[in-house]
Amino acid sequence: MHWTAYVDGYCERLAPGLWGEPLNDATNLAFLVAAALVWWRARGQRTGRVLAGLIGLVFLASSVFHLVATRWGAVADSSAIAVFLLYYAAMFPSAFFAVPLKWSWPAAPGFVGLTVAMAALGGGLYLPALVGLAAFAVALGVARDSHWTHFAVAGAVFALSLAFRSIDGVVCGDFPVGTHFLWHLLNAVVLYVVSNAMITKLAPAPVGARASSAA
User: Transmembrane residues, as ranges (predicted)?
Assistant: First the structure.
């Protein structure tokens, strides 16, 4: 595999060069904004800060890929997204269902198995993420956890985002900049919503609420 091979996968890019995708590059800043907001919402919470750091990694990897447009950049981009997905999958049972971490982390290889199975059917990396969001929403809805709405909203936004990513190559003739930049903007919203859901779930209850429950 030639790691430095040129990758031209988006409408906006017409030739090699660092500034071949100015709109895609600029909209990567949405991930940086999401990372900053998640860090602020975490207020020192370890899990929240890890999520913020992983969103920041997505920002860096995606920015590099859309600047250099090489195969190694594409791998770095996909890998950063995969790391966030795996960490979130591993933490979900613990955060939302109080499953001990030693039993929670196998959700990550479970997600890998789902991804491999769906990839064999042509689903790629991102369709399993959409299925995962739907599954999280349903599981929380059954458990009567109000956070199910976060995942329902995130799933709807991600479905729209995935649609824009899919049609990028189709609309080139009528819309030369393509629609991939909307993938960045909407995915930043998705990452913030699911991260904020986990942060709020893990946040300690207010003092008044704890006193009432103790009484």
Answer: 49-68, 80-99, 111-142, 148-167, 179-199
